[in-house]
Every structure is written in structure tokens, then in C-alpha cells.
């Protein structure tokens, strides 16, 4: 194909000098890559032997012809790179051209066949997508029975149990939660590899997230006689925008590993502000990281010496931490000294934050923290400082009395349960003092009862929440109580009871799994609702056609019709246009959420069903004035 030369290129202009010499032609012909030289109009002035082998013909057949590939507008000496699908003698091929502009006009281009590379990348991408689909399917099938086991355990917990039965139930719950966590790690890893993991940016209460995580891990730590504590610096935003589930996953992996591998001492979880980032760290007194493990610690299926010798694992935890931190625009790292512990940290950017609103309610108070555990001393001192108090850590019980004598006002002493026997001797007529025992979940009862050690006014459970420290440190003993006499304790929490918000509601539950269906029915009944259960999507559509409901709960994966298609058909019914529809799913992904909303659903809940979340959603979506007529 030929065309007229553009006006800016003279008809009798000579080809660029780069193609003139026979020595240069010999060099081009010796190259394995394709070489072509074009003038300023795009016509060929020189091609090499590899070019002729690819496209056929003789050199003279190509000279002066216009070559159909994109022309650039580079300055002399500048290069650009692009891929073009071209018809060659061996069939269609992808050629990657590196094109350089020449002095005086024209270009020289070097091309290489990248067809196999593109096919390999496409195959890898397709394999990653296939693996992601496979993992999504298999993990859903695994999560469904585990969700049923957890839901049943939660229902059973609200019944009257003997202490040993409650312990067995805790073991069942812990094992099921661990299995769910591992399944989530595997699924997230497959999504990350396929580039399909989507992050949800929403307001996060970071303090609440850390304190809740501390309570989850407290039992495991207590079983190993470890101290577990957390502290949030006062300049950390009270609320910020992040993906709460991924944030919790990163922190749970770091803190969980610390509890897993630490045999003596304790673990400190801390949040600090570092410029425009928040830094979460986990410090432990564990075995440390061996030199040979440091370079591969964050790789998939790699397990350090401590894990290989002490506990089983898949080696996914730290790999997930690294991949998730990168997905959130953050970074992760660690320092460690063999035999003395490790310090893991994760920093992520602050996308949007509200100023810290922690009330400095202990301003003017002096809080002493007496504990043999350095981690507890540091954590509680940080918490008290954030609340406005002066703090003094005490590492030796013999130093407590002298330290208190120098205090002004009414000092608060947080006294480790190991030193509780010293409390009675600290009472003096001339100086009022408030003593709070620092207990573990398993030992708190001995400080809450009348037989608590003399001199103890109250108790805190480690890991201590800032709110609890503020509340109990500010309390003043009533005048009718002598020093050391137990303060009245709040009544024990009663088992959850229906609050009546769903009384009289008729709720359709479409769930093909019998265990999860039973759990849904029992939870709704506890909340005062009247559940009606069907086992597939088509039955749900038929039920709505025949009867009015206050709300419909649809499992996403059901026989005959899945939840999305069932929602679409319900919305097409005259009495289904306004009924609230809630999706239930074992795998709660952003893609699933978007598809459910597109199908006309109003809410998206993950399994195992959380009673409070379900109740709140139904109470919000089902106004009291709109009661369904029972069919």
C-alpha cells in the first residue's frame, strides 16, 4: 500500500543516513530482532533479514512502501514502545516495537515477537480467575456448615450450662472461628492474586476495633498465662476511613501470631499516629525471628523456625498481612532479637479522620501502675496518660508505699493481682487511696465477691479498656464504707432476651441448609417474630405471591432459583415491590453486595447470623405501622 508523501517531506529527499552504509545493513541482518527504518512519511528505507523472514519478499519489494504501524511524534533521540497484532508468514503474531526518532526525520524500529509471552500472561490471568472462582465455591461450601456450627453454639450459650459444658462450648466456638479465619485467608489470597479484592472505605472506630480484638485474644493469652494489653495514643483519630474487615484481619494475624508463639511474658497492641499515617504495632516477648527466616517471613506458605518447631500452620498469615497492607496503600515491617521478642508493625494512610475525642476525665489525678509485667505497666500508663492523668509505673512491690506517699490528692493504684496481698498494708488514715486490682478473665470473680483481698476497692480485667479505666478510677468510695470494704458491684449480665422490636412480624426465611435455616428461625423467634421457612428460591417467590410478609431473608445460593433471581421475581410481584429483602451469604464480597443491590435487595448480611445486626436491620426496614396480614 502506498500514498503521497506529506508536504513537509520533499519528494526528492534522501533516505536517512542511518540506512546508507552496507556495514550498518550487515549489523541489522545479524540481529535476531526485526529492524525497519522509515522516513518522515512512514515509508520504509531499510529492513533487515529477520524482517524479511517474518513478512516475506525481498528487500527491494519493501523499500519505498508505507508500513502500517502507528507513527509517533517523538523528538529526535526519544523512544516509545507499543504492541501491534500483525499478519506474518507464520500467522498472526504480536510484535513489540521499540521506535526511536532520528535526527533529520524518520525513525528506526526494532521489533520482537511477544506472542508467547502474551499468551502466557493471558493463561496465567485465566488460571488466576479460575482459581478465584474455585476457591470462592469451595470456601462457600466450607463456610456454610461452619456458620451453622457457630450459630448453634451461640444459641446454646444462652441456655443454662454447667461450667464444664461452657468450657467445651468455648472450645467448639474457638475451633470453628479459627477454621473460618483460615478460609477467609485462603479466599482473600486468591482474590488478591486475581486482582479482584475490593476494599470498602467506611468510618472505623479504631479504638473499639482494637479493644474488641483484645477481648477475643484474651482467653487464648490467659490459657498460656500471658499478659495481653493494648494502648491507643491520644492523637490517634477517634474515627477514620478504612476497610474495617481488612484492618481487623491484619491486626488479628499479627496479634494472633504473637499469642501463638509467645510462651512467657506478654503482648502489647498499640496504635500511634505517624504524620498522615496510623501505625499499628504488636510487641511480644516471644522467641524472636531467626536470621535465616527474615527474608522470607512474608512469603506464602513460609513458616519460621518458631512455627515449624512449636505449632502447626499453613504459613498464610504474614503473607496475607503483607498483601493486604499493600492493597490498602500501607506498609508492614518488623524488628526482632532472637530470644528476646519481636515488634511487628503495620502503617496505613489516613484517608479521612475526625479529631480524637477521648475525654481527659483523669486530668489532675495521679495513677500508679504496679505490676511485675512491663507490658501491663506500659499499656495502662499509656491509657491513663491519654485520659489526662499523671502516671508512675512501679516494677517492685516494695516501692509501692514510698511512691504513694509522694502523691498528692487521692491517688489511684492499679495493682496487679499477683501483688494483691500488699493492698491492706497500703491503707493509711491520713491519705485516701483507691486501689483497683488488675485481674484476668479467669480470676476476676475473686475480686468481685465479698471475700476479695482486704484493701481492694474494685477490679479491672486485662486487657483494660480506656472506658473501664476512666469509670473505675474516677469512682469515690461512699462515706458509709470503710477503707478496703468492697464497693457494690453491678449485677451480672443476664442472658440475652427478646427486646420486642420484632414482635408480631412475619418473616420469610429462604435457606436450603437445614442447620442455618433452623438458626435463622430460632433467632427470629427469640426476637418476637413469626418465621416462615422455605428451602429454595422458587418456593420463596411462590410464598410471597400467596402471602404478605414484613420481610424476606434470602440465601444467595439455593436450588431452583438463587437469591438474586428470586429477589428479581419477588420485586416483579404486585405485593413484592416494597417488601424488605435481605441477602444472607457465607461469602460477603463487594461483588456479591453490588449484585444483590442491583437485584433489588435492601440489606446484605453475612453468616453466621448475628442476632443484633439482624434485629437492627429488620427494625429499620420494617416500620411498625406496616404489619403484614398473616395468611
TL;DR?
With 631 residues, this protein is of the alpha/beta class.
Task: Write a structural description.
By secondary structure, this protein is an alpha/beta fold. Helices cover 37% and strands 21% of the residues. It is built from 18 helices and 23 strands. The strands form five sheets. The chain has a five-stranded antiparallel sheet. A five-stranded mixed sheet has the order 7-9-10-12-11. Strand 21, helix 16 and strand 22 (581-585) form a beta-alpha-beta unit. Helix 4 runs antiparallel to helix 5 (163-193), helix 4 (115-157) crosses helix 14 (514-526) and helix 6 (206-223) packs parallel to helix 7. The longest helix is centred in the first third of the chain and has 43 residues, at 115-157. Residues 1-20, 300-315 and 476-498 have low confidence and may be disordered.
Topology:
Layout: H1 22-30, E1 34-38, E2 44-47, H2 49-55, H3 59-62, E3 79-88, E4 91-101, E5 107-113, H4 115-157, H5 163-193, E6 202-205, H6 206-223, E7 227-232, E8 239-242, H7 244-261, E9 266-274, E10 277-284, H8 305-310, H9 317-327, E11 331-337, E12 341-349, E13 353-354, E14 366-370, H10 374-386, E15 390-394, H11 400-405, E16 412-416, E17 434-439, H12 445-448, E18 458-461, H13 466-474, E19 506-510, H14 514-526, E20 530-534, H15 537-546, E21 551-555, H16 563-571, E22 581-585, H17 590-598, E23 603-606, H18 611-621
Parallel strand pairs: 7-9, 14-15, 14-16, 16-17, 17-18, 19-20, 19-21, 21-22, 22-23
Antiparallel strand pairs: 1-2, 1-5, 3-4, 4-5, 6-8, 8-13, 9-10, 10-12, 11-12
